[in-house]
Amino acid sequence: MALWDSRFKKSLADVALKFSSSIDVDGKFFNEDIDGSKAHVQMLMKTKLVSSNDGKAILKALEEIRKEISSGKIKFSWRDEDIHSLIEDKLVKKVGERGKRLHTARSRNDQVALDERLFMRKEITNLIKLTRTLQNTLLKKAQTHKGTIISGYTHLQRAQPLLFAHHLLAYISMLDRDAERLNDCMKRANMAPLGAAALAGTSLSVDRKYSAKLLGMNGVVENSLDAVSDRDVMIELISACSIVMMHLSRLSEELVLWSSQEFSFAQFDDSFSTGSSLMPQKKNPDIAELIRGKVGRVYGSLFGLLTIMKALPLAYNRDMQEDKVHLLQAVDTTKDCLHLTSELLKKTSFKKDRFEKELDGDLLLSTDLVDYLVRKNVPFRKAHNIVGNIVAICVDRGKKLNELTLAEYKRISPKFEKDIFKLLTARSSIQNKKSLGGTSPKEVEKQINFWKKVLKKA
Ligand code: ARG
């Protein structure tokens, strides 16, 4: 028996019921559904739509149902249609006619919208926690690599030397914006649609604010049509997850590159590496690659949900039942990947001395020479040009910047003096990047201290 079938002469065909059943997905919201129902019945008791005795019996039975689902005593079947129908059915079996009062002034439309918001509220908190954990892992790595010099790239071509800590700190900033976005999403997620009923509100005297308060929500979604048909918050959450995943994918890509023999910078622990079934020598970075690959699921969910919602007339349409698949896929994948990135990083070592020697005198110090000339009052564009000529000579002769003589430098510009050679080490290049937020040890230390404080409070 469905919740709605008394006006029909025939019951829903099995193929149609199986096709339309959503319990395999919304069964995961049973806790939220029970929490929502408890708040609803308490509100009905307060407004005298349900007697205190009936209400108490319902509340008690709902808790029993929660236990029975948790312990596996109640099993889900597609015949149950959805979690809301299943719980109401079990309730009526437990408390008889009294249970039939639970759905007073409620529709599954506002019920499911509430369940989803309660679920998002819980998962946003989990996502923020995992983001903070990863930030802490990155911060620890940054502290061990305060002195490690790497090459920085633009276009994946050597650009300027960097402290590795500085590079890691960039990811901490990215993840911080992710946490901010999630926090912002929380404000809108934590609003109650309950009491909007099917779409129009109700003629019964409900107290929407009371049930919202019981659930610890910030307020109610006022417009009843909007309350049941809005999935904006879910889209926001999945898009916030998509940005998190984009960040994780960029980091994973760098880890993959750094672990290659060509870079020889990162070394994954054996416990986070895989081999080849054919090539015995292989040690592959599969975990990082999978994190990079799983972005597809989350972006897929974002587009999936945007597509479902596009052109839906107000208010509820059954299409919207498909939203939960995407919500779960996006949230589960993002949580997994945040966790795995943190675990992988903890187990990855980076060679402290991989770059420094190689970068001393390297052409990536050219900008330091330009700045030198600018400090000697040469206009920037001219200085750029002069150093460009020096680079051309080095490239022609296969030499590093520190392998030309002062005489050779002077031939290009008399402004060059002996002191340029002091500038031509990776370390001095780093030391000199003292501008705010730059890669000098002092600025990097400042950033580390800043994040230490922020993350302690977070
Ligand atoms: N299982 C449904 C969903 O997730 C619940 C709402 C059903 N509402 C309805 N009018 N058929 O969307």
What are the defining features of this structure?
Ribonucleotide Reductase Protein R1, domain 1, mainly alpha, 458 residues, two-stranded parallel sheet, Fumarase C, Chain A, domain 2, single chain, two-stranded antiparallel ribbon, binds arginine, Fumarase C, Chain B, domain 1, 5% strand, 19 helices
What does this structure look like?
- By secondary structure, the protein is mainly alpha-helical.
- It folds into three domains: 100 residues, Fumarase/aspartase (N-terminal domain) (Fumarase C, Chain B, domain 1, Orthogonal Bundle), CATH 1.10.275.10; 230 residues, Fumarase/aspartase (Central domain) (Fumarase C, Chain A, domain 2), CATH 1.20.200; 101 residues, Orthogonal Bundle (Ribonucleotide Reductase Protein R1, domain 1), CATH 1.10.40.
- A two-stranded antiparallel sheet has the order 1-2.
- β3, α8 and β4 form a beta-alpha-beta unit.
- The mean pLDDT is 97.
- Arginine (ARG) binds next to α6.
